[in-house]
């Protein structure tokens, strides 16, 4: 089992920045990749970004490319999502997730473990 705890959400004005953290504990040796998803009110949960835990390869959804950066600190078992130039459309609950195999990085069904979510609100 892997436990994930997100932090760093909050209220920010458009154009501002936030950094989300996802602390992993438990059987972290089984983690192959970490992903970030978000769910806006009344909408489905969507893929945001993913990173392989050992090699650090990254992938992003088009709408956040150039604005968001996913990273990880293996020594701290923590993943990060740096979000810059935030837009009101980025308002959502953000979830981190861990996968042991990551067949399809953009599918939430590919991830085995999920955090509780952290809310991000971007005001215009």
Using brief descriptors, characterize the structure shown.
124 residues; mainly beta; 7-stranded mixed β-sheet; 4-stranded antiparallel β-sheet; 0% helix; globular
Structure described in brief:
It is built from no helices and eleven strands.
Sheet/helix structural class: mainly beta
The biggest beta sheet is recorded as: 7 strands, mixed
The residue-averaged pLDDT reads 96
Tally of helical runs: 0
Query: Helical residue percent?
Result: under 10%
Low-pLDDT runs of 5+ residues are none
Overall spatial form:
globular
Distance N to C terminus: 40 Å
**Beta strand count:** 11
> Strand-residue fraction?
over 45%
Compute the gyration radius: what is it? 13 Å
Q: Which sequence of SSEs, written as H and E, runs from N to C?
A: EEEEEEEEEEE
Question: What does this protein look like?
Answer:
With 124 residues, the chain is mainly beta. 0% of the residues lie in helices and 52% in strands. It is built from no helices and 11 strands. Strands 2, 4, 5, 6, 9, 10 and 11 form a 7-stranded mixed beta sheet that branches. It is globular and about 40 Å long. The chain starts with a strand and ends with a strand.
